[in-house]
Amino acid sequence: MTKKRMETVSEAANRILITEPWADARDLVHQQAKINFPREMEKAIERGIKEYTGDFYVFVITPKLRNPNAIKTKYQIRNFCPPPAYNQMVYKFDRNEMQPKVLWVIPSKDFCEWLYMHKDSAPAKLDPIKKYVVEFVNGTLDKLYYSLESKEKRDDG
């Protein structure tokens, strides 16, 4: 009996790029890596609950690496909201509800530019991300960030 070879993340991304030319390789690699997302998010939330007494933010960043087929995702916790940026997901953990709430998901700069340019013709499966991209480009997410920042300053005294 022969063992079936597993497809690598970069091979999967390349296979998808052939059938979906609008796709961004980094975003496809990120999609493949999201299998670990629930476990890593749970760990970040547990750290935040231990470290902070009130609400806190979990931000997931995917820094650009030299190898475009490599990905490194960082889960950071803070008691303040980070400003909107490319390659970033931000969640606010509400201690009263004991639930994280998605504030925004912003993909890579290239993918944002492509999606914004093709927002009327992009596939429907991109609609959840498209909402955040449009709000990022038109400044709505910046307004949300500043309102959260000013609320945090008022709460701190």
Summarize the structure.
By secondary structure, the protein is α+β, with helices and mostly antiparallel strands. The chain is 46% helix and 17% strand. 22% of the residues are buried.
Question: What tags apply to this protein structure?
Answer:
single chain; 157 residues; alpha+beta; four-stranded antiparallel sheet; 17% strand; globular
Secondary structure blueprint with pairings:
Elements: H1 9-19, H2 25-33, H3 37-51, E1 56-61, E2 74-78, E3 88-94, E4 99-106, H4 109-117, H5 127-138, H6 140-156
Antiparallel strand pairs: 1-2, 1-3, 3-4
Helix pairs in contact: 1-2
Description:
With 157 residues, this protein is an alpha+beta fold. The chain has one domain (34-156). The protein is built from six helices and four strands. It has helices spanning 9-19, 25-33, 37-51, 109-117, 127-138, 140-156, and strands spanning 56-61, 74-78, 88-94, 99-106. Strands 2-1-3-4 form a four-stranded antiparallel sheet. The radius of gyration is 18 Å and the shape is globular.
Number of domains: 1
What's the number of extended β-strand segments?
4
- Mean pLDDT equals 81
For the largest sheet, list the strands in their spatial order: 2-1-3-4
